[in-house]
Design goal:
The chain is mainly β and 369 residues long. Helix content is 7%, strand content 43%. The chain has a single domain, classed as Tachylectin-2, Chain A.
Length: 369
């Protein structure tokens, strides 16, 4: 049964027709969910042809006792660090996945999954978490420091879901995290809306002021969610490369966010551009949950090997784009004006979408994504 399902998923990945469907979906998608009515941005052009992923390299990461790697970051010396979702540990390694060392994580609250990691500077890093409590109002960022052979949590900051507002699902919290200059960018797994009107909550955390700025990113598929981010500052914008995935969906998208804090108002809606299909890297049912991007053509992904029917070794997958990454629409430093006559932003938090399998041929639904 599993082998048959995997074969169907691979055939779905191979279909070129989804590119045209994506253009239609983006063109028809409104500016935001009902709770965030804004002027819809112009849908971006889809680069033709899209870059391909070439020169793939798959490396088993030797990390005894550690499974379920959920994100990836790079320290100041260029070494990679992966975070484990449930095991209180990080894995430090060379850029090719060799010379791996398991580094214990101390001080993370019990009952939380650690889903994201971003290097800040020096010996400081940030971790993203999620809770299984469906009635929570926030999830936590953990700020930590490397102390000898351990990573020690020093303080916690809450990401309040009333910023959008949003009522998240259990075990769908802060899924991706990256640093760009003096800001952290956090992606929330719970999605607002449904069908071709799906929006992923994104928040920028200013490391200097401690303030959050919420945004919404149009998703490019009817089922995918953001699972990983890599970002950097370009001029006055934050340039973000992200993984959007869910069973038959696995792709790279790119979008821009303003690097300066926006004036108060409803969350802006950001339109991404499609960069590449990750299907060529899917040897098994890999669940890509971590991403490092050099800002040009090289990427590295880490695989979550501990979910649903998927198991196997910890894996680092590296590849290059065959051409330049398509450039997304520019981010406007101003918030879009509300539609004339539209009501003010609602104070009632919209429910996150209720998920259904993408097709009857999809593999068994995992407990958390």
């Amino acid at each position: 049964m599993v082998a048959e399902a995997v074969g169907i998923l691979r055939r779905l990945h191979a279909r070129p027709a989804w590119t045209a469907a994506l253009v239609i979906a983006l063109a028809g998608c409104p500016g935001a969910a009902t709770e965030h009515r804004t002027e819809p941005p112009t849908p971006p052009a889809i680069a033709q042809p899209l870059p391909r992923l070439i020169d793939p390299a798959r490396t088993v990461i030797p990390a005894p006792g550690v499974t379920g790697l959920s994100d990836l970051t790079t320290d100041d010396s260029g070494r990679l660090w992966a975070i484990a979702e449930k095991y209180r540990a990080l894995v430090r390694m060379r850029p090719d996945g060799s010379d791996a060392a398991v580094i214990p994580l101390v001080g993370a609250p019990d009952g939380l999954d650690v889903e994201g990691v971003a290097w800040i500077a020096g010996d400081r890093l940030a971790l993203a978490t999620e809770s299984d409590d469906p009635d929570r109002l926030s999830d936590l960022l953990l700020f930590a420091r490397v102390v000898g052979r351990r990573v020690v949590v020093e303080r916690k900051v809450a990401l309040d879901y009333r910023l959008w507002p949003l009522k998240p699902r259990g075990n769908q919290g802060i899924e991706g995290l990256c640093r760009a200059g003096d800001s952290l960018v956090a992606a929330v797994e719970s999605v607002i809306g449904g069908g071709d009107r799906r929006l992923a909550p994104i928040a920028i955390y200013d490391l200097g002021s401690g303030r959050w700025t919420p945004s919404l990113v149009r998703l490019t598929s009817s089922t995918g969610k953001l699972s990983a981010l890599s970002c950097r500052v370009r001029d006055d914008r934050i340039d973000v490369l992200a993984v959007e995935r869910h069973f038959e969906v696995a792709r790279l998208i790119r979008f821009e966010l303003p690097a300066t804090r926006a004036a108060p108002g409803p969350p802006r809606v950001v339109t991404p551009i499609l960069v590449a299909d990750l299907a060529p890297l899917l040897v098994r049912e890999e669940n890509f949950e971590g991403l490092v991007w050099d800002g040009d053509r090289s990427i590295a992904l880490v695989v979550d090997n501990d979910w649903a029917v998927v198991s196997g070794p910890n894996l680092l997958v590296r590849a290059r784009l065959s051409g330049p990454a398509p450039i997304p629409p520019p981010a406007d430093a101003r918030r879009p004006a509300s539609n004339p006559g539209s009501r003010p932003p609602a104070t009632r938090a919209p429910q996150a979408e209720v998920e259904t399998p993408a097709s009857s041929a999809s593999p068994p639904r995992p407990p958390r994504r």
